[in-house]
Amino acid sequence: MALLARGELRSILQTELPNALDTRWDTQATDQPEAHGEGQTVLLDFDAVVKAEAIVEVAHFIRDKFGYDLLSNITAVDYLKQGLIELVYQFYNAADGGPDLRVRVRIGRSPEECIVPSLTPTWPGADLQEREAYDMYGVVFPGHPNLARIYMWDEFKGFPMRKDFPKTGDKYTHVTGE
Amino acid sequence: MLKTEELQINIGPQHPSTHGVFRMLVTVDGETLVDLKPVFGYLHRNHEQLGEVNTYLQNMPFTDRLDYFNSMVNNHAYARAVETLAGVEVPERAQYIRVIMDELSRILNHATAMGFMLGDMGAWQTALLWGMREREKILDMFEYVSGARMMCNYCRFGGVVRDIDDWFITELKKLMQGLPHYFDDFEGLLLNSEILLARARNIGVLPKELALAYSVTGPVLRGSGVAYDIRKAEPYAVYDRFKFKVPVGTVGDVYDRFLVRIAEMRESYKILEQAIEQLPDATGGFINPKVKQQSLKAPAGEAYARVESPKGELGFYLVSDGSGSAYRYKVRAPSFINLSSLADMCKGYTIADVVVILGSIDIVMGEVDR
Fold this sequence. Notes:
Mean pLDDT of chain B: 87
Shape of chain A: globular
Oligomer: heterodimer
Structural class of chain B: alpha+beta
Order of helices and strands of chain A: HEHEEEH
Number of strands of chain B: 8
Largest interface: A-B, 43 and 43 residues
Number of helices of chain A: 3
Largest sheet of chain A: 4 strands, mixed
């Protein structure tokens, strides 16, 4: 059991679980956010970006091998320009403390691509957070026992936190036009 | 043979024991609870999207409305996230002031939370009144420094909005003289109460492994015997300069959470004593004068900062696109994630216990629904 430094997980995964890493992000040099101008979102690459189907395997790997047993946070971010939804998983080592370990999954925004296996069967703490990501961003988690809307009502259409969700003029507010 | 069948009932959304607009859809077999589904969203105002529309500074008062008992702690966590993102330094005096406010918040939160929980249990009025009495004194202090009792809006990027003065320190010392007396009274009155023991011992047990799997944090996790406190695990502000213990429970029942909170109030008191002792003089300033508060822009990137709020790990995850407002603003609300363990804790106990178990998690719906 040891604490991992920033970026260390990526090199460990390259040797231990080479199939888990998402190879699309190997060559992107976006580790210097200062190089980008205003209004530019950057995809940060110093953490491990893993394939959606490998997230459960990677989560078990870091828990059993390095003691990162506290899944603190699942955040969905909509990168509209890049056409991606990113899920950031933050794990903590409850015994040793220290900073978080971030694991990222990047998926497309269309309904066919926006799918990530659920962590809820092993980490029941992911339950409500995955439901939130589904409700707000439309990420579907196969394996989740009860993937229903959590904040919005069940009949609600669309995913309000997506960047292209209209902020005015929907049928609920009865206001037309932008 | 009498025919029996399970019954589904709703506790809430409008119910005094749910501490806000919160519904529990419970399935019961007689008095015994078989299943529980938490239903929420009644207070949902898409706080996270407001955070993406507001500028960084405009969003500060909105964080007050998350956990409205501890607006000082919310401010601190949010300010820390923006400071990490924009690379802002905080003067030492401001760090100490923030610690003082955080620990006062912890005392008032635990005092009232335990009061409400005992009120749910039927120990009506006295416990809550005593907690409210102490809270009132602390709120007076908050009002003096920030101008508001609950919606403090006190932190700024790189410091706090107003310095504390000698009058504040004198009054704080006076206030603190009464606190140990309150802790002793509160503990003595309740720990010897047979009713409390009967209602709290071995009720709502959450074992250690399960607590970790459920991602719970704060007094609930520590009540289950995991000594995880962010002030120790990843010290922020100036917490590494204070001596204090992390109280833990053994069984993980309602009673342990109760004990952990009482012990935490005493530890907060110790931190307050040390913070007043070590407080640097005003020469270093209480806010970083270089920071442009209104037009603050953060370089593109991301930041996550967390503090040990009285309810658990409160974190803010920010993604910046280089403009004056956050591209993504996410709140890791402790009450929300602690609630995921509720169903498991309640199964097998009676309906009357559910109310107590919910009280022992200490939730605030402003933070759960966002």
